[in-house]
Design goal:
Length: 361
């Protein structure tokens, strides 16, 4: 059985297989309308979401399956104090596959360790969002015809934006990717992505101060919203919320073939005047999200009884040291009774297994 918690839980071949299947679904929708007949998807959403939850729901419905779940943890037993582990053990009796969104980092990982059915991480805190990554990869492929060799600019909240973290990780498997980072000082890409992903896996990246400077070289511009809900202080949010705004004037500096992606929702970082530009691909990206989730559900259930499709070992080098502590208050190990686990990355830095926070240099 296989879960999708982090984009790298899928091998390069598995990732491309899901993208290819999504393209086949787009081309032959009628062939897939009863593929999931009699199967149930549970959507456990502990955090607000419109498009991701509806996208999962629409995906399962288009496959002829059924959907159950909750979109507000207050209406579930969670409000009585139930742990993620117990909720998942229970829901596994009612559903064949579970999609979970949670504000606490590592919650879907904990769920996958006790679940009898595949778990899909639909976003955990500021950490990961692998199904948005599959959506983004399919969109890049459909818009440009290829993923290898692209120069991609990430603009906005690169610190809290989980979609950015996951997409960079996934792109590290493709050839000759160049990344340009455009963010206010306080919202720069976390070190663990720069060091463990970009430096270690050989993604070339540079940080630039303005969109104008970056835009002429880009094949993809990936805009993001400043993640207001992750700020502890409203003033800090106000200081950076209007840092980078894409408008028609800036689009004039871009290549004719450049495409603009955004995971949505947008606030004000892309003016609506850009929407009619054929290079604005963000609404097409939403539809791709449904197709790729259809493909993912099919594959995870196909692989459920296949021993070759296990979670990869990943962070092999666990560190046994009782003095270590995860400092991230948004990590599952500081929110539920979860035994802490730490791993040593190749550069010798020790990190939390659940949220990747650095705990020792
Ligand atoms: C993103 C998310 O939830 O991380 N949205 C989404 O899944 N479509 C981006 C965001 O909320 O800004």
């Amino acid at each position: 059985m296989k879960h999708l918690i982090d984009p790298t839980d899928l091998t390069y071949d598995e990732t491309n297989d899901i993208i290819t299947l999504a393209e086949d679904i787009i081309a032959h929708r009628e062939l897939y309308t009863s593929r999931m007949k009699g199967k149930k998807l549970a959507t456990l959403f502990y955090e607000p979401s419109t498009r991701t939850r509806l996208s999962f729901t629409a995906a399962m419905m288009e496959l002829g399956g059924n959907v159950l779940g909750f979109d507000d943890a207050r209406s579930s037993s969670v409000s009585k104090g139930e742990t993620v582990e117990d909720t998942v053990r229970v829901v596994g009796n009612f559903a064949d596959i579970i999609a979970m969104r949670h504000p606490i980092e590592g919650a879907p990982l904990i769920a996958s360790q006790v679940s009898d059915v595949p778990i899909i991480n639909a976003g955990d805190g500021s950490h990961s969002h692998p199904t948005q990554t599959l959506t983004d990869l399919l969109t890049i492929k459909r818009e440009l015809g290829h993923i290898d060799g692209i120069t991609i600019g990430f603009c906005g909240d690169l610190r809290f934006g989980r979609t950015v973290h996951s997409l960079i990780k996934a792109l590290s498997r493709y050839k000759d990717i160049k990344v340009v980072l455009i963010a206010p000082d306080t919202l720069r890409l976390p070190d663990y992505i720069k060091q463990d992903v970009c430096d270690r896996l050989g993604i070339r990246y540079k940080e630039v101060a303005t969109l104008e400077e970056a835009i002429p070289d880009l094949d993809i511009l990936y805009m993001t919203r400043v993640q207001k809900e992750r700020f502890l202080d409203e003033d800090d949010y106000d200081r950076v919320k209007d840092s980078f705004i894409l408008d028609a004037a800036k689009m004039k500096l871009a290549k004719e073939t450049m495409k603009v992606l955004h995971p949505l929702p947008r606030v004000n970082e892309i003016l609506t005047e850009v929407d009619d530009d054929p290079r604005a691909a963000y609404f097409r990206q939403v539809e791709n999200g449904k197709f790729v989730r259809m493909a993912l559900i099919c594959r995870l259930l196909d692989w459920k009884n296949d021993d070759n499709h296990k979670m990869p070992e990943g962070h092999e080098m666990f560190v046994n040291d009782d003095t270590l502590h995860c400092y991230n208050t948004k990590c599952i190990c500081n929110n539920e009774y979860v035994k802490t686990k730490f791993y040593e990355s190749l550069d010798g830095v020790v990190r939390c297994f659940y949220c990747d926070t650095k705990v020792r240099e």
